[in-house]
């Protein structure tokens, strides 16, 4: 066998391997996406004529080749469930403006529900978990254009770190954004240093970590006070929910007015604020969100 023949055979082998790999990846992607969690609004909530829909974002990514390539090649839930591209985010904010949807702050929601037993009309609250750098660099300028208020929940002991596939904003970046946004930006606590899993379970939900969680909550509020001059009346669950023990502890905190979850749904009464439902915004949920609005 000549050297040229060996090169041709090697080239054919590599090409065949890459084709097989591509087919396998596409099959796995199709399977994973077809079986992922449905984030659309529940049928029972679609019929509600009044309420406050709290939208939840994590990362708002630039539309570039690298992002699109990774999205096309991986079924990673972190990418498809917890990311929105900047172009999509702009379209969503433009949609709210075009259709005169009333975007209110978390504080306005609390005040509204204190004054009235039920909500009249449809409203939206914008929330962001973790305070990734993309909130500062991508999402904030879009909301500034529309003068939209928003709430950002911070992992007070993890600022500036690379965390779960995202680059968290530094305290310096967060405080600068707060100064620029003024009252439009509200800060919530997202634990101090307990936003992680232990064997697949949120660490703060483990019974053996309950005392540690209470201490962590106190530390997160102390950090907020040190950095911003005041504590926060908003707590946002990492991973979306807590055990009854954790829930009871949080609901007993006199300073907390809102406890944000990732339970799918719409706020209709003041009681909802103890376990405030939110809609994760992604390709799977936006169609139903838009239809309800």
TrEMBL record:
Q: What is this protein called?
A: Polysaccharide deacetylase
Per the UniProt entry, the signal peptide is: none
Q: Name one GO biological process term.
A: carbohydrate metabolic process
**What species is given as this protein's source?**
Secundilactobacillus collinoides
Q: Which UniProt keywords apply?
A: Signal
Q: Name one GO cellular component term.
A: extracellular region
A GO MF term: hydrolase activity, acting on carbon-nitrogen (but not peptide) bonds
One of its Pfam families is Polysacc_deac_1
Family annotation (SUPFAM superfamilies) = Glycoside hydrolase/deacetylase (SSF88713)
**PROSITE patterns given for it?**
NODB
Q: Where in the cell is it found?
A: Secreted
The segment(s) forming the NodB homology domain are 122-293
What the entry lists under InterPro entries is as follows:
Glyco_hydro/deAcase_b/a-brl, NODB_dom, Polysacch_Deacetylase
